Structures are given as structure tokens and as C-alpha cells.
TrEMBL record:
GO terms for biological process: one-carbon metabolic process; tetrahydrobiopterin biosynthetic process; tetrahydrofolate biosynthetic process. This is GTP cyclohydrolase 1. Pfam families: GTP_cyclohydroI. PANTHER family: GTP CYCLOHYDROLASE 1, GTP CYCLOHYDROLASE I. It catalyses: GTP + H2O = 7,8-dihydroneopterin 3'-triphosphate + formate + H(+). It is an enzyme of class 3 (hydrolase). Its EC number is 3.5.4.16. Transmembrane segments: none annotated. It comes from Vulgatibacter incomptus. One of its GO terms (molecular function) is zinc ion binding. Residues 1-20 are annotated as: Disordered.
């Protein structure tokens, strides 16, 4: 299992499996550095809880490649002219590598079938496979779009992400209403403005 390509710029690669004991030890040192009393009942088990959450939930996307998520779960059929598959409002959460703070929002995904079609739930799983890593939102959109085109051989893919970045809403500028929107277009979505307009129209009218 695992990623089937080198990490893209904006995605922090993982070079070894997670070590929960090392992770817990690091959290313990961090809390000590914060001046927290580690004998307090509220934080006594915190290092292990945090390590478990990061290893099993926040970074489990490193254990799933796009090929594993999509590779054997498609059907072959001849698409209609300019047929577009769109799934909107796929909720996701990810971790920014800069401050190790979460961002969460929704993904809108579309592709132009060129023979291979997958179930809608597979697209949601693909979003999670990339989101559950240390990855910038801009890179996340691009990685999802490129994976769809690569693994399904689609004529094009489009991804728009709308997310609340807690590194902006809870620190720094503290703009609680701010939302970041990133997008990526590949193939015919990149070369044909009318297809992008159709896609944007679908997600705008949801």
C-alpha cells in the first residue's frame, strides 16, 4: 500500500511508517515545553491519544494510493459526447504542513469519461486519500484532478475546494469568516472554457 508516485510540491512526503511511541514522546516534550503539568488527569493520556489520532486518522491517506482507490473499481463503457460526471459538496478535512493546523471544507469534483467510469463514492474516497496527509490546499486540488485523469484515462478533470483554514481563522489575522477557494483543471477542462463554465454552473446552483 501507499503512494504510487513521488510527493508533489506542496505535499510533505512520508519516508517511514508512523511510530506512535516516538509521536507520543514528542507530544510529551511539547507539553512540557508549554509548561503543562503532565501528571494532571486531563493530559496524562494526551500524548498517546494525539499520536493515535494522527497515525490512524489524520495521516492515514499516505497508506492509500489513487490506484488502490480507483484502480479496480471502474466499468468500461462508451461515453456520450461531452458527458460530464459531477459530484458536489464532498466534505473533507486535511492538515496544513506549515502550522500543523487543520483545514476543512467541501470538494466539488468532475471528470469527462473516456471509457472508464467509477462509482461516486470512489471519488469521495479519493479526496480523503489525498486530504489525509500534510498537504497544502492548492496542491490537494491539483493532486485529485491529476489522479482522476491518470487512473481513469479521462479526457479531463476539474476540482474546486472551498475550505476554512484554521491557520487564518484562529491565529494571525483571525478572520473567522474567511474561506479559501482553490481549483485545478486538467485536459479538456483546461483547454475548453465552455466546459469549465458548465462545471462552475453545476456547483454554483447546488
Amino acid at each position: 500500500m501507499g503512494a504510487d508516485r513521488d510527493a508533489a510540491p506542496g505535499e510533505t512526503p512520508r519516508i517511514a511508517p508512523p511510530d506512535p511511541e516516538k509521536m507520543a514522546a514528542g507530544i510529551r516534550l511539547f507539553l512540557e515545553g508549554c509548561g503543562v503539568d503532565l501528571s494532571d488527569a486531563n493530559v496524562r493520556e494526551t500524548p498517546h491519544r494525539v499520536a493515535k489520532a494522527w497515525a490512524e486518522e489524520f495521516l492515514d491517506g499516505y497508506d492509500r494510493s489513487a490506484r488502490e482507490v480507483l484502480g479496480d473499481f471502474y466499468e468500461e463503457r462508451k461515453p456520450a459526447a461531452d458527458e460530464m460526471v459531477v459530484v458536489t459538496s464532498i466534505d473533507f478535512q486535511s492538515m496544513c504542513p506549515h502550522h500543523l493546523l487543520p483545514y476543512r471544507g467541501v470538494a466539488h469534483v468532475a471528470y469527462l469519461p473516456a471509457g472508464r467510469v467509477v462509482g461516486f463514492s470512489r471519488l469521495a474516497r479519493l479526496v480523503d486519500a489525498f486530504a489525509h496527509r500534510l498537504i497544502l490546499q492548492e496542491t490537494l486540488a491539483r493532486e485529485i484532478a491529476e489522479a482522476i485523469r491518470r487512473e481513469l484515462g479521462s479526457a479531463g478533470a476539474a476540482v474546486v475546494l472551498e475550505a476554512e483554514q484554521t491557520c487564518m481563522t484562529t491565529r494571525g489575522e483571525r478572520r473567522s469568516q474567511a474561506r479559501a477557494i482553490t481549483e485545478a483543471f486538467t485536459g479538456e477542462f483546461a483547454s475548453r472554457p465552455e466546459l469549465r463554465e458548465r462545471f462552475v454552473g453545476r456547483i454554483s446552483g447546488r
